[in-house]
């Protein structure tokens, strides 16, 4: 009987699947997205000149400059997030110190929607009041929805975005390294890059939402195709003018 009762309380193991590094995934997606699109549009536009050497030279220059620019942009954005968090934390620390009763009322406002009244929350409030730094942590997390960014993320973000941009940008340029006639290379570049954009769009949508993955794949491919077609038409227009 006791064995049966024990078996009834055995639960199958449960593993929660969540991203461990969502910021890194976001940075990689940003870099790959721009890397597949911007050099593709540039190469397509310059292909109207029918000189692969020009496309390769300009494409590589843009690739290096774009990777550095994107990486620095990611670095500065992360530094700004840290500075913003520190400023808000200092402001919240002053409010906890100077207006404790108002901050206690905010705790009630935050947790009231979860069915917790003042009587239930009084032990929590007393605990937080005894440790002002934890109180500030609580308000930062639940009132302002802010978590301190990892300072190491500055360089990780910069390198991830820059390297992803570099990898993505090499895809549309590869055919021009092997095919002398730029317009012939353009056909290969279009095929390779649109395929890469489709796969990238599918994986990106799958990772972020897992819904309408085919729609996301086609949308990503369409954006890249429109950018390349616009650049090609614009350069061709100036070339014939």
UniProtKB/TrEMBL annotation:
Subcellular location: Endomembrane system
Pfam family, one: VIT1
Major subcellular site: membrane
Molecular-function annotations in GO: manganese ion transmembrane transporter activity
Keywords: Membrane, Transmembrane, Transmembrane helix
GO term, biological process aspect, one: intracellular manganese ion homeostasis
Biased amino acid composition, Basic residues: 1-12
One cellular component (GO) term of this entry: endomembrane system
Region (Disordered), start-end ranges: 1-20
Domain of life per record: Eukaryota
PANTHER family listed in its UniProt record: FE(2+)/MN(2+) TRANSPORTER PCL1 (PTHR31851)
Entry protein name: Ccc1 family
Organismal lineage: Eukaryota, Fungi, Fungi incertae sedis, Zoopagomycota, Zoopagomycotina
């Amino acid at each position: 009987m006791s064995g049966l009762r024990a078996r009834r309380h055995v639960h199958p193991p449960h593993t929660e699947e969540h991203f461990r590094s969502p910021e890194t995934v976001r940075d990689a997606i940003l870099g790959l997205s721009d890397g597949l699109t911007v050099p593709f549009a540039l190469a397509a536009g310059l292909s109207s000149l029918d000189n692969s050497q020009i496309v390769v030279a300009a494409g590589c220059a843009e690739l290096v400059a774009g990777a550095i620019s994107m990486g620095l942009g990611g670095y500065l954005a992360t530094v700004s997030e840290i500075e913003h968090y520190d400023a808000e934390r200092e402001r919240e620390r002053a409010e906890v110190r100077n207006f404790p009763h108002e901050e206690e009322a905010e705790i009630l406002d935050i947790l009231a929607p979860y069915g917790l009244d003042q009587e239930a929350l009084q032990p929590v409030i007393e605990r937080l009041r005894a440790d002002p730094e934890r109180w500030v942590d609580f308000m930062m997390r639940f009132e302002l929805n802010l978590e301190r960014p990892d300072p190491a993320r500055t360089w990780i973000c910069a390198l991830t975005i820059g390297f992803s941009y570099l990898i993505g940008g090499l895809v549309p340029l590869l055919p021009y390294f092997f095919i002398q006639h730029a317009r012939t290379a353009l056909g290969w570049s279009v095929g390779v890059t649109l395929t890469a954009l489709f796969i990238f769009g599918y994986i990106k949508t799958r990772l972020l939402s897992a819904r309408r993955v085919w729609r996301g794949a086609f949308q990503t491919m369409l954006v890249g195709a429109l950018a390349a077609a616009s650049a090609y038409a614009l350069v061709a227009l100036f070339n014939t003018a």
